[in-house]
Amino acid sequence: MSFRIHYGWIIVLLSVLLYLFGGTLNQAFGALINPLEDKYGWSHSSILAAYGISAVAGALLSPYVGMLNDRYGGKFLLFISVIAFLIGAVITAVATQVWHIWISFGIFMGITHACLNISLITTISYWFDKQLGIAVGIVQAAQGFGPGITTLFLTAVLPILGVQNTFWFISVGGSVIMCFLLIFYKSTPRSMGMTPFGSNEIPATSTPNSDPLEKIRQKIHARAVQGTSEFWKLVAVHHLGCVSHAVMMMQFIPIAVTAGIPYSTAGIAASMFFTISSITRFITPAIAEKLGAKNTMFVMFLWQAIPIFFLIWSDASWHFYLFSVVWGLGYGGEGSAFAVINRQYYGMGSFGRSYGWQIMGAGLGMAVGGYIGGPLYDLTGSHTATICFSGGASLLGALIIFSMASTRQILIPDWESQLPQNIKT
């Protein structure tokens, strides 16, 4: 008896590896702040500006990346991400002024992150008709344990090799590995003469194509999607969820240190919530696919919001360890069901354009949340306002989700009626 693995699962594995080698540096940016301060004497806020620029750049590029993904396929965008990654890492290795990392991390790593975030998830959606939630969950899990691994790697290697040697190693090693992985990466099942996993036929709209008729289908489907109020609510929800957890990603360690917790202990606690988030990043898409994405997302947004407020009274190490365990589960599940809710609302079709807008909302949220903690602390002299701002953003996101339509039926069942007569299926 022969046993064959559907190539869609190979794409899942390749997606995980591509994200691990190219997409985790932005998330682990906090590990670079102290080494850069110590080596160059740059201020905390000027270093953190690189992260904000990266988030804004990735956000503004996301709609265009989505359109390019629909037109040329995920593999093309991933090749662009490898080039941007290489340039960004090399500039970081030779940086001598703070504005150098504004370019290296702010621009080039922003491009890398936008291309990876959109291309990996949209490609997965093309390869799976059934078990999409599990496939997306595996890739989402990498966005949890990946930054945790990268953080541990940077904190172990930077004191030994220094910033310049570490980034020469990252630039060459990471780029070579990603180029090797792309040899086996395929944008769609059709490119291999296959059908999506669980499907008996290839949906005409599931593959990027240079055919003018296919472009018309993609544009009309995207127009129908963006004509629903739920689409724009999803953009807002993604924004608010990312505002909330970006605050914690950047400010958790300062909050803990201000409360009297040793820096090393705070760092371990921070790596814990990254790693623990992998659990719900993996299972949330599958739960959303089975029980409905709207209700699943509502619960996860509340789960991300409520524990944050307990940081106001936290002053012992075990408080922060406990927070990392509880909050990490909500943080992991908050953004993991977007691919599923898009499928449940809009069915099979052009996904890159619409998801690009949602990623733009998320990226701007990461920029706001990643930066806002500094000014709030400077103005108030404490982290209380920052904590309330973070928790409040998630609560507002939960309220918007509550107002959205049920995912029990597709919102645009008749979108093909808008097609010209000669290309209707």
Query: Helicity, in percent?
Result: over 70%
Low-confidence stretches: 203-209
**What is the chain-wise order of helices and strands?**
HHHHHHHHHHHHHH
Strand content: under 5%
**What's the end-to-end separation, in Å?**
39 Å
Global mean pLDDT: 83
Shape: globular
Q: Major β-sheet, in short?
A: none
Provide an overview of this structure.
This protein has 425 residues and is an all-alpha fold. 75% of the residues lie in helices and 0% in strands. About 2% of the residues have low confidence.
Give a nutshell description of this structure.
By secondary structure, the protein is mainly alpha-helical. Helix content is 75%, strand content 0%. The longest helix has 51 residues, at 132-182.
List keywords for this structure.
single chain; globular; mainly alpha; 425 residues
List the helices and strands and how they pair.
Blueprint: H1 7-22, H2 30-40, H3 44-72, H4 74-94, H5 98-127, H6 132-182, H7 212-226, H8 229-258, H9 263-291, H10 293-305, H11 317-334, H12 338-346, H13 352-380, H14 384-402
